[in-house]
Amino acid sequence: MTNKNLVSSAFAAAMAIGLVGQAAAHDAAQEKDGREKCYGIVKAGQNDCANLGGSHSCAGQAKTDKAPTEWKYVAKGSCKSMGGLSSVEAQAKLKR
User: Fold this and answer.
1) What is the pLDDT of residue 94?
2) Helix and strand element counts for the chain (H, E)
3) Measured in Å, how far apart are the chain's first and last C-alpha atoms?
């Protein structure tokens, strides 16, 4: 591996770590505001961020309604009444 490739790889890794940290901070802020992630209730194009499957990493990219991998923030405690899943339940559904 050339020095240029090594430096590029190190830079890319550092940037990725920074983005993960920002996402975690955003999640913590939403939870503090009384919101939680609710999976499986999203209409196509109305998700809040990356899905569990890893096929996209941005809001508004859900392809189908009520996909168990897609989520949006809802008021804490309201997810179940909307027919939604927690992240643990959504991940278990993915593994089936």
Assistant:
1) 84
2) 2, 2
3) 40
